What does this fold into?
Amino acid sequence: MSEKSPYEKFAENMLHPDSKYIPQIIQAMTSQEQALLLVTLPGTAAEMAEKTGRAIEEIEADLAAMFRKGLAFKKEKAGKVLWRAPAHLVQFHDATLVWPEATEEFYGLWRTYMEKEWPTLAQGLSTLTPRAFTRVIPVNQTIDTGKAQVLAPDSVRELINGARRIAVTPCTCRLSMGKCDAPVEVCLQINKGADYTVERGSGRELTRKEALAVLDQAQEAGLVHVTMNKADAGHFICNCCGCCCQAFSLLRSDGLKLCDPSRFQPRVDADTCTACGTCEERCLFDAIAVDDGATAAVDAEKCLGCGQCATVCPESAIVMEAVREMDFIPL
It folds into this structure.
């Protein structure tokens, strides 16, 4: 049996050893030397030079190039810079797709992978962890604050107002899939995520006012706020559509729970609702519907608690109420 190429070895590291397209994606981004370096990580530049038998100056130049491509991540520890490869497929996807020099051909490779191979891997990943990696955050102004304690992790505006640094990148899913005309430059990076984005050159720094304007633009477009599924908020706020998003598209087509709901669900005031159907048209998840002119009804199993139905109700007949305790959000 012939030895596997570094492209194939990397696909194995991404838990997709039989992938046809991951090796092609790596081959489109790297030289042979960079690909070998990628599957030799982690380590310092000096350690990589020793492992590969190459000059440290060459290793440092390749690592810098791979950092910009989203293939190498660095962390300073004990006065040394430690480099590592992407930890998993989602990080590989999100980091490489905002590579500033990415081409349409490169996006096309990712599009083919997501259409043909990602659903199979996602099915397996959905069974490996007890909770989803990401979580929906409801639109702020839809929450009934008189009956619910709104935590900072429940509020995109609180996350922005409390951030040390903010940047914006293009939405990786819409860059590659291109299935809708929703705004693309709306993926917000917070704190360490913003530091990484600005240093790498894959996005631009924003003021708080500019970041809040991005949220308003996303809300107007019907996009759903998503962040890391942790109480300390994490490093990003994505604004996702239902057709391009790697999690939402499979939730809609196959029912895969790749993203947790928010702590909230919509409550419809039957006396105020006119059964106009505006909320039904707005919902990405087919979770609210009007049948035979009756009051809008919510399907709790399908609802992710984003609040978009409430934002468009012309009668203000929908508010978001807490249906899950505060400890629903993992620490």
Summary: The chain has a mean pLDDT of 92.
